[in-house]
Amino acid sequence: MRMLLLAGALALLMPVAEAQINKCVIDGRHTWQSAPCPPGTAEEGSKEESGQGAPQASAPSPAPAPAPQPARPPTKQERCANVAQLAETVMQQRQRGASMRELMSRVPDNDVARRIIMAAYEEPRYNTREYQQNEIRDFENKYFLECMRGAN
User: Fold this and answer.
1) Residue whose C-alpha is closest to residue 13's, from 126, 133, 121, 100
2) pTM of the model
3) Alpha carbon distance 112, 105 (integer Å)
4) Which helix (H) or strand (E) holds 10?
């Protein structure tokens, strides 16, 4: 359950500074990335999925899509990858100078996400891109390892 809340928290982290997070569904799994989603993989309700991008020409409605298969529960490694992805995103925001108050306001009821945000702001903010990238990667790895060692 905590992992589902954590995955939801990532979706709530709105872009701060210049970052943009896109929620995609690839092979039936939710992923978050800074690059735009590949065609046909945008999360339902997103700007890309709803067609808010380019105007659409009138065309006959396509045949209904086949009923979706029930999603399989994520593996431990997939859940931990989501935790690591959240940690990476939070630390990216930290290194870009985002406000901790702003990040915390986006996840008011998610203790795991709030703990990750607080931990990120206990780490230094670096000025050089190389040091920032090292800190982001180390922080992401720390949470992936912690999750993999944990229960479930």
Assistant:
1) 100
2) 0.57
3) 14
4) helix 2-12
Q: Residue 55: exposed, middle, or buried by beta-carbon count in 10 A (0-12, 13-18, 19+)?
A: exposed
3-state per-residue secondary structure call for 74-141 = CCHHHHHHHHHHHHHHHHHHHHCCCCHHHHHHCCCCCHHHHHHHHHHCCCCCCCCHHHHHHHHHHHHH
Q: Would you put residue 55 in left (φ > 0), alpha (ψ -120 to 50) or beta?
A: beta
N-term to C-term CA, the chain: 11
Q: Helix or strand or coil: residue 4?
A: helix
Which amino acid makes up residue 2? R
Question: 23 exposed, middle or buried (CB, 10 Å; 0-12, 13-18, 19+)?
Answer: buried
pLDDT digits 0-9 by tens, 95-152:
999 999 999 999 888 899 999 999 999 999 999 999 999 999 999 999 999 999 985 4
